[in-house]
Design brief:
Layout (H helix, E strand, L loop, with lengths): L1 H14 L10 E5 L5 H10 L6 H11 L8 E5 L5 H9 L6 E4 L6 H10 L5 H8 L2 H6 L15 E4 L5 H15 L2 H9 L4 H14 L6 H14 L6 H7 L9 H5 L22 H8 L8 E4 L5 E4 L2 H13 L10 H5 L21
Antiparallel strand pairs: 1-2, 3-4, 5-6
């Protein structure tokens, strides 16, 4: 009878749960190197462990004190001591589905991860712009910009910035196939040039059908030795961007100012998606040299400067008349994109100089 009574009490303690009433999703983070007593204390403080002796019975009885794993654990419903023990022993940590949209910059990604408390934004940026890390990951240039493939990732709290970056770079390496690499070489372009072109395409248009056309404009201008004059490249090169390009911005020299610096910028200006990468490798067979925004996300493409200037005036008139005459960034430059593209990123705290 005594044995049965002890067993019954133990079973009750192990399976008993905190009250269901007014329970809220509860999280607990167990740091690396935490001891069993420290873990037990954390669980008690979080209101997860109602009967500490039950947890002790499980840990000691199974000799799993050294197997309790670090990480963040989430409990949407009241757990029993058995639930707690099983979850922590098996390392069933919380997993986050993180969506990185096409055209995100390393600054956007840092902010997204920071909002989810998966990485410190400053640490992430410092790691992503480390020339040593780029070299180790066989990425040309001094940063990983352009090579963090936009996708949905499953991440956990204990991942370091370098581990997260490694996952994204490996995803890029799988998506950028040997066939794409071979085609780029046939075109006389390096992988970095293709990624840079793709990043400009991604920022210029969100219309899938237009991406090969924008690619053709870029290729044509490069072949003719014309300046690209692409506003998104200037925006990327600015230390701070308030939302509107000015004449001063256009005239401020930096390596990303494609109004003043011929050829491609020194590296990608965002992380392009697969369709932009393919468009960079397979441009449309057109002879367009110019394009202007229709103010609805799409663009009007032109072959001559005369056609382009006419298109600029047509679509410029569609804007609010209070805006006044076209600015230098909107009609008097070669591309005259009619203002910032729909995919222009929000202001960021800092960027490449």
């Amino acid at each position: 009878m005594l044995v049965l009574a002890v067993f019954s009490v133990s079973l009750f303690l192990v399976t008993a749960r905190p009250p269901q009433e007014q329970w809220r999703v509860t999280k607990v983070y167990i740091p690396k190197g935490s001891t069993y007593p420290e873990i037990e204390k954390m669980l008690i403080e979080k209101g997860l462990l109602r009967y500490p002796v039950a947890f002790r019975i499980l840990v000691v009885g199974t000799m799993t004190g050294a197997k309790l794993q670090q990480g963040e654990y989430v409990f949407p419903a009241p757990p029993s001591a058995f639930d707690l023990w099983g979850k922590i022993v098996h390392g069933d940590v919380a997993k986050y589905q993180v969506i990185i949209p096409d055209g995100s910059t390393i600054y956007d990604i840092a902010q997204t991860l920071g909002n989810l408390e998966l990485a410190n934004p400053s640490t992430f940026l410092a790691t992503a712009t480390s020339p040593e890390l780029a070299l180790r990951m066989e990425i040309p240039g001094s940063t990983l910009e352009g090579y963090l493939f936009p996708d949905t990732y499953t991440l956990v709290k204990d991942m370091s910035a370098e581990e997260i970056l490694g996952v994204m770079v490996r995803r890029f390496q799988r998506k950028f196939t040997p066939e794409m690499e071979r085609k780029a070489k046939e075109e006389g372009l390096t992988r970095n040039q293709i990624v840079t072109i793709a990043s400009i395409i991604e920022k210029e248009t969100g219309v899938e059908a237009e991406k090969p056309m924008v690619s053709a404009v870029i290729r044509k201008r490069l072949s003719l030795g014309m300046p690209l004059q692409m506003d998104p490249t200037i925006i990327y090169g600015l230390k701070k961007f308030g939302g509107n390009l000015t004449k001063k911005d256009l005239k401020t020299p930096n390596s990303y100012n494609t109004y003043l610096t011929p050829g491609l910028p020194p590296g990608p200006i965002c992380n392009p998606g697969l369709s932009a990468l393919k468009a960079a490798i397979y441009p449309s067979d057109t002879d367009y040299l110019y394009f202007v925004s229709r103010n609805d996300g799409s663009h009007r493409f032109s072959r001559t400067l005369k056609e382009h200037n006419e298109a600029v005036m047509v679509y410029r008139k569609g804007k609010n008349a209070e805006l006044g005459p076209p600015t230098e960034a909107e009609g008097t430059n070669d591309l005259g994109e009619g203002g910032l593209p729909a995919s222009t990123p929000p202001p960021r705290p800092s960027g490449p100089s």
